[in-house]
Amino acid sequence: MPDSLSEQLQSDMQCEGLLECFHGLKPLDRECFSVLVESDEPMTIDAVAEAVDRERSTAYRSVQRLLQTGFITKEQINYDQGGYYHVYSPTDPEKITSEMQRMLNDWYAKMGQLIQEFEEKYDHTESAQASS
């Protein structure tokens, strides 16, 4: 993925790249997310690991990153005899996009503030040098 903003704007980015761009997620995270989205039912870690052909612990770390970002949800299923297991489902896309839009607005406001600070700092310096 490109590092600078100008490189990002010139790259051929796809919508799934937003997972990486906004949250620093990895390609495996994107793959796990896609598996969960394509599934008709919530999935266990074992099922996700099998679908992405990775070890359970590797899939678990990826699913944890997706949980932390809010892209997926976790539900506890209880056994009748006692004990439980967890299943994972994608979060409603509208909720995800609303959060990404909020983050983008916050970023835009912060960048605007930094640009203004840059202009004030360096415009002031040039004015002081010109009057000397």
Automatic annotation (TrEMBL):
Domain Transcription regulator TrmB N-terminal: 19-94
Tree of life domain: Archaea
Gene3D superfamilies: Winged helix-like DNA-binding domain superfamily/Winged helix DNA-binding domain
UniProt cross-references to InterPro entries, sorted A to Z: Tscrpt_reg_TrmB_N, WH-like_DNA-bd_sf, WH_DNA-bd_sf
SUPFAM superfamilies: Winged helix' DNA-binding domain
Protein's name in the database: Helix-turn-helix domain-containing protein
